Amino acid sequence: xxxxxxxxxxxxxxxxxxxxxxxxxxxxxxxxxxxxxxxxxxxxxxxxxxxxxxxxxxxxxxxxxxxxxxxxxxxxxxxxxxxxxxxxxxxxxxxxxxxxxxxxxxxxxxxxxxxxxxxxxxxxxxxxxxxxxxxxxxxxxxxxxxxxxxxxxxxxxxxxxxxxxxxxxxxxxxxxxxxxxxxxxxxxxxxxxxxxxxxxxxxxxxxxxxxxxxxxxxxxxxxxxxxxxxxxxxxxxxxxxxxxxxxxxxxxxxxxxxxxxxxxxxxxxxxxxxxxxxxxxxxxxxxxxxxxxxxxxxxxxxxxxxxxxxxxxxxxxxxxxxxxxxxxxxxxxxxxxxxxxxxxxxxxxxxxxxxxxxxxxxxxxxxxxxxxxxxxxxxxxxxxxxxxxxxxxxxxxxxxxxxxxxxxxxxxxxxxxxxxxxxxxxxxxxxxxxxxxxxxxxxxxxxxxxxxxxxxxxxxxxxxxxxxxxxxxxxxxxxxxxxxxxxxxxxxxxxxxxxxxxxxxxxxxxxxxxxxxxxxxxxxxxxxxxxxxxxxxxxxxxxxxxxxxxxxxxxxxxxxxxxxxxxxxxxxxxxxxxxxxxxxxxxxxxxxxxxxxxxxxxxxxxxxxxxxxxxxxxxxxxxxxxxxxxxxxxxxxxxxxxxxxxxxxxxxxxxxxxxxxxxxxxxxxxxxxxxxxxxxxxxxxxxxxxxxxxxxxxxxxxxxxxxxxxxxxxxxxxxxxxxxxxxxxxxxxxxxxxxxxxxxxxxxxxx
Length: 751
Prior knowledge:
The protein is of the alpha+beta class. It has 4 domains: 10-180, no CATH class; 183-298, no CATH class; 303-574, no CATH class; 596-711, no CATH class. Helices cover 37% and strands 9% of the residues. It contains 29 helices and 13 strands. Strands 11-10-9-12-13 form a 5-stranded mixed sheet, sandwiched between helices. It has a 4-stranded mixed sheet with strand order 3-2-1-4. α2 packs across α8 and α15 (330-339) packs across α21 (473-485). The chain is globular and about 80 Å long.
C-alpha cells in the first residue's frame, strides 16, 4: 500500500526509472533525431547517434567555418572520454536539468514543438543561423524570437506516445542502460589482431599501411551482425584510443591495433563496409608478407614530409601488392574519398562534375608500377599538399603553382615511360574488375555529385557521362591520401584550399589517362570541350602525349565510342533506363500502369527528353536527389531521380553558379536508392501514375498540382513516409544501408 501511495505521488520518477534508453528511447532518437544529428555537419555538433553523443552535448563552434588556424579536434569516442572532459572543451549539456521543473535544453525544444507544431517558411539546418543556446536564458530568447523552431526542426512533431516517453526520460535525468548490452566477439577478430600486432618489422610496416587505409572502415565479420572500427590504442583492451589528428600521426608510446565495436547508430553517409574473413587474411599474407620486398623491411618515419605520402613512405612494399590491395576493394576506397571525412563540402565537391564514370588500369599494363624505378624517380613531382598539415600558411596555400609545374613535368615523364613501353595502348590495359560477368562487378564505377555530397556506385549508371576517368596506382593513392588519410576537417582554411586546388590536378590526371586512348590529334579537342570559357584554359594544366592509341574507331563521335568500347571490354551492361540510342522515339503516356516495365518505359521518356521542368527548377536551388515510390497493388517500386547539373567547366573554386547552364542539365532515374541525403519524397498510387506523369510533363509552375504526390517537410504524414523509404532501404541492402540524412531535405513548406 505504501509503495502504491508513493507511486501516485511521484509517478514520473517511477515511470522514468523503468524506461530503457536502449529499448525505448534510442529507437525514437534514431528515427526522428539522428536523421539530422549524426555527423560533423550536425547543428551545434550535437550527435544523437549514441548516449555518449547526447551526454557530450553541444557547442557554438561549427566545424565547417573559415579559420586562420586549425582548431582542436572534437571527435566523439576519441578526443574526450567522459562528460567532464567535454565540458572542459567548451561543450554544454543538453540533458542536464536546469530548473525546478527539471527542464533541460533538449526537453524545452521538444516541448516548444509540442506547443507550436506548425512549420512555416523555410528550414535549412546547415545554412540557418542557429544560436546553439547554451543555457535556459539563451534558449528562451531563441524560442521567443522563433517560436516555430522547436524540435524536430522543420519537420512534424513527434507522435504523442513518443513525445511523452522521451520527455519523462529527460525529466528524470536521462538514465543510461547501454553498458548492460554484451555481444559475442567474432571468431576471426583475434586472428586479425594477432596479424596486425606481430612485432616482426615486415608485419609492423604492413599493419601501418593497412591501418591508414582502413581507419574509416566499418569492419564486417561474417559471424557478427555488428560493425567494428580498427583503432590504435594505448592499452590492450582498446579503451585508450590514440588521439593523433591523422592516421599517420606519430605515437610516442607503445600502442596496439584493436577492433572496437561501433556503438553509434549506423548512418549511411559514413557507412563504408569492409569485410574481413580468413580469405582476406590469406590475401594479406600473399600480398604483403610472402613477397620479397625491395629492401630489408625498415620502420617508417612519422615526419609529415614522408608519412603524408604513401608513394614516399611505403617504397619498400612492392607497388604491385599495394595496387592490388586497393583494387581488391576498389569500390570501398573510392567511396572513402567521395564520402569520407567530409559530411558537408560544396567547396570540396565543386571540383568534380555531377556525373562521371571511373575505370582502372590493369596492374599488368600499369607502367608506373611495372617500371620499378618510375615512382621512386618521380617522388618530388608526386608530393602531396597534406605535408603542410592542419595549419597551412598563406604562402604555402599558394603552392598549387608549384604543383602545376610538377604536373607538367610528371606528365612528360609518364608520357615518355609509355612511349618506351613494350605494350601498345589498347583496351587490354583496362582492368576487368573483381567479378567479371557479374552484375556486382566493379570494373566501372559511377560517381554522382549531389551538390554538397556525393555517392559512388558499381556499374555504369545513367546515360553516357560528359567525362570519364581512368585511374592508375599513383593516382588512386594520391586521391586517397589527399582527401581521406591526410585531410584534416579541423584544419585551417588554407589547408582546405590547397587540397581543393590539388584535386584539380588529380581530376585532370584521371581525365588525361582516359583521353590517351583517343587518337592523339583529337585529345586536346575533347579536353577543351570539357573546359569551356575564356578563363578555363588559364586555370587547367593538360599535357597530352604524342603516343599512339592502338584502338580502331569507326565513328566520328570518338569519346562516345571509346566509352562504349570500355563497357564492352569490361562486360559492364549499359543502364536499361537512361542509356538510350540516338533514334529513340518518345512513347505516349499510358492511361493505366500495372507493370514495372510500363513504368520504366515512361521514366525513360523523361530521361531522354529531359523535359521535367519542375525537376530542373529544383536543380537551380542545389536540389537534385528525389526518391519515388510507386505504390502498386502487388509490389512497390522505388526509383531515385538524380539531377545532373551542366558545368561549362569545374576549373574554379568559387562563383560556381556562373558556370552552370540549366538548359543542358540532365536527369538520370535509377532503380533503388542513390545517395544519402534525399531532397524530396514522392509517393504515387497505382491508379494515379498516368496523371502523375502528365502533371510532370505539362507542369506550369502550379505547385498545387504536385501536392498529391510530393511530400513536403511539413506534411502530416511525413514521418510515416520517411519510415517506409528507410525500411525499404534496410530491406534491399541489409549490410550496406544506414539511416538517411534529412539535413538537406527541400527547405520550403507547403502552406
